[in-house]
Structure formats: structure tokens, C-alpha cells
């Protein structure tokens, strides 16, 4: 049976991109000194990726559905994973925040003030050099005309006055959510660590619903230069501002994939390879994600 | 006397000129000055300022911190307010050059770890309370020498406001004297011609209660070190000793850290956050039962207490300033067991995050923001323990044995915070997960139909059934098995 994440190719590629970026944290500390904190669900896919990619042994998964506790204990891929049952808000304080951490608050809901409070707590508690990520739904409620009201409902005065309904098309709500997340982390970073939180990630992807993954690194005056030395900017998917990196994994056959990879790597002209009948935009999208896509080759 | 005198208020400084070509009415100037000085201070902080001065003096006499034998007495009635102490007195020299100056000159060294930083407290407090005052002081000086002094002065503020001079006159002055061995070296400040609103306030039991609470908490360390602080009573106040629940399995959050002050120097911070034991009297009641009015308890003492050099700036704070509402949950009666105590201390009082009146937190201070951030995460952590216990309690069934987390939080006694050891988190037993929910009862569809009794009997006989419902069920099952199942 195919593993479930293969049905979510964009999410899977995103996970690997983030792990790839985290490898650059070696400038700050040995990677196995980091801990991973996430919402593992039954599959713990991100836990496996972070362990394989970074060698992190110490991991904590928070799960609110207390009915699946026994299955979680059975399904967890490593004995070192500590499963905390309950709402993130009540469980996060049990994490040992004196350690460097990579924390991924991977929600499926639209951004709310409760989520912002969790973010506030995590950024405040994390030691500088820690990574914090939040995934939320891109707020795509229908009809379109309700989207702005819906966002204002959830976030109140955090939503700027200058927005109007036409800003709510497509990825508009996700853009608003990103700015609210970053604004919160910015202020909390200043309060708690003396410098604003540095955004690194602003992913848009849509395996089904439109989703936003935003994140970055907690910095401090002592660490800021070291973070520069991590050279996150060298990664083409790193985004420090409001323009997003959209992950789009085109549907291609194995044969097409093999051909495209062969041609892409080592191309001297810089021109993208072509396949008759395959849209150039799909080939371009493929070129952006092939190294991180999950597949047989 | 120089033709111009200076008055300093906070960081500002202005000149009052009395050269012959000006026509400023100095009386009006002084009244305006007094009004400005007193308009932003309330009575309680004014009294507390006077007590702080006395306590500072007592502490200055005993660098070892042992204050036994020291006393401060506050007495008041309809006509007068008096505070007296044996805190060493004010020397004539200090009185002449510093104590009654408006604003403290830079070369005054002050008392280490004191609150008296801006030099306006005493005069402002006096002006706030009444229209006339008298100060008497005896200063011992170095024992065995004759550098002691005594003075008294009395001022009618209304008359003083009429004068051009910004000076007070000593009634009597004695310098280079030796105080007798039994003579009290100390100060008595009496204020008379009380403002009518002050008379009202001092006659209000609620205000006296607030003052008592404030003094007990604010000066608890000094009281515990032996200071006798009397508030209109022969009996000195007892210290209100901050305590938190602690046991083998419950440990409050206890952190000590330093924050760098602006321009060098550090502020030492001690932060304690946790819960207090549930009140004994409702031990049998459900302590989490918050929804019902008859169980309503005053939030009372719940919240944050913040001290700067042992001066209390925040009392039972439950506002967003200390994290309530963001990032922690807003106050709700379920959190009434929460207590947080934060102590900031610095040798240089100017590093501490308070306003010029030392009555409130300077919320824009970087030092405060750093401390505030720690308070916020501590509050979230303690709330999380309270929430977990509440969830466990809410699903506890009758006759079920109390889970460890509830036993721990119901039974752990309050311990003075000075006895607690460091813990970066609040520690409490884990909450047992809820039992998996029973599978939902299957939905059912009822059918009812009427048939000919004869045919019913035939079918019943064929099925071997004895009741209508049995016939109905068996015929339905028969059809289902044959045609669908």
C-alpha cells in the first residue's frame, strides 16, 4: 500500500525543504542537540523526516484526540518520541524549552487568536537559534464575499483596515495570515529576545485546501551574525518577506520524471528541457521541486 | 541668598526668578507647584512613600539586614497624621541641603538598594495629606563624637505659599551635640490641617485595610528582619509572607536571572510562579466549581506581585500587562489559585523599571519587557497545570479514586517562596488521559404497521414468536437476509 503522504506531494516536498534548510543550523549547534516538537498525528511522517534528515533523537508530539492514545503509542516510529495528550496550549509548557528546538505547529484550521497565543508562547520560550513554524488553512471560505468578515471575526483588530474584499481572492487570505503571524512573532521576538523573529519560510501549497506554512528563526543580538552565516538565503525556497514560494508538484509519469531530471542537472544552456504535450509551466514547477519531491527515484 | 533659586522636579529643572524687574506672583507659582506635585499621587502611595523613607533609613543603619529594635509608627485621627521612627534621624546638614530640597542633588549618595531616588517623595506626601506640618529629628552621628544634631521646623503651607522665598525656616537647630544614650535618634513628621478628602479617606475602613495589606506585603522582608511597623495600633503588623504550594511532586516555577540595564549595570530578577493551596474551609466543596454564584470566590489575591528593591509595584495584577489575555488565557475564577512573585533588585535604583513616582511600572522600559516576557511564559505554564487538573477533575466519576495530580494539588501545603529550589517549569504529576469514549449508541429506525389479526397469528406461529415486536423484528430480519444481506 502506498504511504499516505504520497497523496500529498506538495506537503511532502515542503517537509523535505524545511529539513534541508534546518541542516544549515550546524553553524549554531550540532543538529542532534536540537529537539523536534510537532503534531505527529498517527503517521509521524514529519518525525521520521526530521530524524532521518537531521539525526534528532529527542522529539515530542502533541495530540489533542485522546481517543487514539493507544494507537499513537503503537504507531510512534521511535521510542524516544514523547507523546503529550491534550490541547497544544496546555501541553506546550511541558516541553523543555531550555534546549534548542524546531517546533512545527501544524494546524489544519484557519488562523485564530488561540493559534497566535500558542505561537507567542513558543517564540517567547524558545532559545535563540530555534526554528518555529506554523501551518494554517488559507482561509478559503465561500462565498468569497464572506472571507474578509470571516478573517476579521477570527483575528479582530489584527487585520488591517486597508483590506477590502478584492484582496481576498486566491491566496489573499493566506497573505493576511502570514502578515499577522509574522507581526506577532516580530513583537514577541523583540520582547523576549531583544530582536525581531527572522522569517525564513512562506510556503503556499494546495494538495487540496489552500495552505500556508510560515516560519523562521528566533534570533538575539549575540546570535544574529551566526544566523547570517547559515546562508539560508542561498536556498531558492527561502522567503523573508510577503512574497510566497508556491509549491506545485506537477503530475508526471516516471518516464517523464526520469527524462526531466537527466536533462535538468548539468544543463549548460540554462534552458528548461521540453517534452511534447507537457506544459512548460509544469516543467518549470518540476524544476523547482524535484530535489525534494517524494517518489521512487 | 542668590537672586534665583532652583527647583527640580524629576529630570526637569526650572528657575524661579525674583529679580526686581519681574512681577511674577511667587505665591501663585508655589500653589501651582504644589498642585502639580500632588495631582498625580493618591493618598495611599503618599503614605507609603513616607513609610518607605523610614524603612530605608532603618535599613541604612543596619547593612547586615538585621532590623530588630527598629520601629516605624503611623498614627492618625481626624485632626492629624503622624509618622515617627527611630531610623537614625536626619542630620541638620542633610536637612539643610538635601532632605527639603525639591529634587535631589546628584552628589547625594543615598542608601544602596533603596527606593528614594527622586527626592520628591517626602514633600509631596506631606503636601498631599495636609496644609500644615512639623518635622522633628534627632541625629546621632558617629558615636563618641559630638557630631549629632537636632532640629525641628513647622510650616503652614498656605502661609509658605504667600512668601517669595522657596525656603523653610528651622524652629530650633542644635549642631555638634551628643545625643543621650536613651534618646531616640529618629524623625517625627506630623501633618495637621488635613485636607477634607484625606480626613474622609482616613476614616474609611476599606482604605485602611488596603493600606494595611500593602504595608504587610511591601515591607514583609523588613518586618521579617525584625522591623516593627505599627499602623494606628500597639501591635505591629505581621508580615504577609509570599508562599506557593510545594511538595515532593509539586514544584512551582522558580527562576533567577539577570537583565542588563541601560548603560551598564544589571538588574537581578527572582521569579516565582505557582499555585496556593485551596482554602481549608471549602475542602469538601469542588474547588473547580466556578460556574455557580453560590460558589463564587473573590479573586482576591490571585495574580502577579512585582517588587522593585522590595517596593511593591503590582498587587494581584490580572491584566494584559502581566500576560493575562495574551499569551495566557484571560483571568477566570478557575485561576484563582495562581500567584506570581517577581523581585527586581539593583544597587542603582535608577536601573529599575518604575516611573518617577515609584508607584507604577514603566511598561516601556526594556528591563521590564524582558521580565514581562518571562512572566508571560510562566503564567502560561501555571495555567496549563491548572487546566490539566481541571480537565481531570471534570471527568472524575463518583467513587473513582482521585488521580495523583488532584491529590497533589489538593494536598500540597504552601511553602514560603524563599525555601523553594530552582525549577524552569512548574512540575506536577501527569494527568491521566481520559478513557476512550464509549462507541456511540447505534441509530435506530422504528417501524410500526397494522395487519389483519388472523394473518398475524399465522405468521407468529410460523416464526415461533410470542409478541408483536418479535414478529416485526423476525420478519424484517428474514427479508433482510434473503434480499439484501
UniProtKB/TrEMBL annotation, chain A:
Record InterPro entries: Methyltransf_35 (IPR046788)
Identification of the protein by name: Uncharacterized protein
From TrEMBL, chain B:
Keywords: Kinase, Transferase
Pfam family, one: HATPase_c_3
Presence of the UniProt keyword Nuclease in the record: no
Region of interest (Disordered), residue spans: 277-298
GO molecular function ontology, one term from the record: kinase activity
Source organism, top-level taxon: Bacteria
Protein name: Histidine kinase-, DNA gyrase B-, and HSP90-like ATPase
